[in-house]
């Protein structure tokens, strides 16, 4: 049975991806910091779908713990066919006011971890000439909305590069670029979201089902929701000064208490 590894698997998009992959018959390696919660998720998936779901506790901002996940991905004993780089968090404060330790951790989790994990899994995928890597980016990668946007821009461009680099193989690379999605993300980051209209929200199931279809079809960029398809197109063709102002306005509204 094929195996998939999902980071940030206890909630939100990561949990929805774990559910989808279990339903499709994949054995799972679930990665997160909260082991009791991780075990609960794994037990539920195993019971409901009859797959093997193992837990790997790891804080991806810590080098030694990240290395544990890299070793699992590089293992030839139990090859990983699907990697979902989902773990992440946001910082409400502006870069000027934020804690530099938190900024470094954001960079470690959103940029360094997916880069290293992808680097670990690709040799096996190349040898087998098969595999899927999904990098959970954001529509924020198309605007200038703080260091979160900067980190997500790396993931989007990194995915586009790998798609080109691996042309001619059966390895599929896809960047999932969702907009506002109903998860714990904004609450954990203490961001104000009450003023956002309902039509701007997507569900995790909507986001993940489209992402998986796109990934299997070999499409490198997936932007769920007509509203975000429109906004991302505008962001890519509009004059950059306008895009920068829009980005900073979004960030400032999220910081208002």
Automatic annotation (TrEMBL):
InterPro entries: NAD(P)-bd_dom_sf (IPR036291), SDR_fam (IPR002347), VLCFA-Steroid_DH (IPR051019). The keyword Oxidoreductase applies. GO terms for molecular function: oxidoreductase activity. Pfam families: adh_short. This is Classical SDR family protein. Belongs to the short-chain dehydrogenases/reductases (SDR) family. It comes from Candidatus Nanopelagicus hibericus. Keywords: Oxidoreductase.
